[in-house]
Amino acid sequence: MRLVNKFDKSGLTKKMSYKDIMSELASAKKARTTEEGEWLFVRMTKHTEQTLQTLGLLPKPEPEPTHKKGRPYKIIDPNAPVEPKLKRGRPKKLEIKIE
């Protein structure tokens, strides 16, 4: 009865049946991988991981910081010397006068 109440509180029963939830929990494998005797999840799918996170058995991952889309602004140094801009197009041919 406690499992059913936990599933109801987390909202999993709206998406999945009791049998589906139990099969997801059975597919998550735990093993002692360290010498201290800690139990860690060894093998699980993304869907199983999401199910465990909604039940509160796994910590939810921290959201990655979002970046603005597009090219970043160019940082302009106000102390840098300003060069004159070049004109568009092909440069004109210079005539050299020999005297």
**What is the count of DSSP helices, taking H or I runs of 4+ residues?**
4
**Shape by Cα distribution:** rod-shaped
Strand content: 5-15%
Mean pLDDT: 84
Strand order of the largest sheet: 1-2
Total number of strands: 2
Distance between the termini: 107 Å
Task: Output the radius of gyration.
Answer: 31 Å
Explain what you see.
By secondary structure, this protein is α+β, with helices and mostly antiparallel strands. Helices cover 33% and strands 9% of the residues. It is built from four helices and two strands; from the N terminus they run αααββα. The protein has a two-stranded antiparallel sheet. β1 (29-32) and β2 (39-43) form a beta hairpin. α3 crosses α4. The N and C termini lie far apart (107 Å). The model has no long low-confidence stretch (mean pLDDT 84).
Topology record:
Blueprint: H1 2-10, H2 12-15, H3 18-27, E1 29-32, E2 39-43, H4 46-55
Antiparallel strand pairs: 1-2
Properties at a glance:
33% helix, two-stranded antiparallel sheet, 2 strands, 99 residues, alpha+beta
Outline of the structure:
This protein is an alpha+beta fold and 99 residues long.
